[in-house]
Every structure is written in C-alpha cells, then in structure tokens.
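New to this. Help decode the following:
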Amino acid sequence: MRISGGIAKGRKVGLRKAFVKKGEAGELRPTSAKVRQAIFNILGDRIIDAAFLDLYAGTGAVGIEALSRGAGKVFFVDDNSLRISIIKELIEKFGFKDRAKVVKDRASNFIKKSESVFDIIFVDPPYASGELDIILPLIDERSILGDNGVVIAEHSSKKKLISEIGILRLIKTYKYGDTSLTLYRKEEKVEVKEKHRKTD
C-alpha cells in the first residue's frame, strides 16, 4: 500500500499481512488505493488544516494520507494492539507525530468519551459487523462533528444507508464496485416559530 497524494506521495504504508496476527486475516480489509483516492477527491480542499478522525483505522492508510494531504490533526482509533503499534511507528517514520494522536479503543467508546470536535470523520467498520447502524447515530448524538462538518462512511455497495440521521444529511453515495462511500454533512435544524399577532 502506498500513499497516493500529498507530501508523502508514493511512500509505502506497509503490507496487509503485517497488520494481522494468525487467525485474524478476515478481520482486516484495507481501503483500496482507488477508494482512498476517491475519498480525497470528494473532500478536496476541505482536508487542509482539518481535524480528521479515522475510526476503525486498521492500517492507518486513510489517516496517514489525510496528514500527507494537509490535515491539521488526525486521530487514529482502533481496538487492535498490533495495528495501533504499527500506526505509531509509521507516523513517526513519516514525520507526522506532532499532528497525530493514536488511540487504542473501541470506536463507540471513543465517541462517548471524546471531548474533541472534528471537521471530517471517516468511518470504515467491517462490512458485515452492523457497526454503522450504531456509530452514525452516536456521532450525531454526541455532537463531535463541527459546524458544516462531514462524515464519510465506507460500506458494502449492497447496504443502503438512510438519508437522515439527526442533523446528519446524506449528500451523495459514490459506488466503486463492491464498495460504496456515503457522504453526510452536518446541517443544523432551524426551528420556525409561528408568530401570532395580538388583535384587539
């Protein structure tokens, strides 16, 4: 796997097998280079100086690419000790240590405890886990997404996500073979109060 853009373009993140222990091979599905490129094409200049959250970080490739392309700060969250250790090594190797925070925790626990607010949240749980149905409402509930922030969810193309989750509005779904990316944007609800005129 190689970084596809930014100051670290072309540098190797590592081989998939380095991130898995025996018996865990089916638990890790790295985001492909094509889909990673698509993520940052969708985000465009929004990535510059952004606070970026890489949930279910896995190999860390998406978060590292975010740093390479100019994100201000990236939080990597994964509950696997081996992956966390390798991500830390890669961040230091690439010179991104001062703009990164690596957290070993379950995604749901991190969101419940987080006091940080993010401009961009990338969510990529195992496709068959059902985690998206838990995590997306939790992101809305815990208000960890900044004003006009966006969530990009990677999921199986067979799964259709709902169009509205609290203040998260589905903007568009992009399909790449068996993989889809669904973009949500935070939009505040505006309450319209009916004005009553007093008559004599």
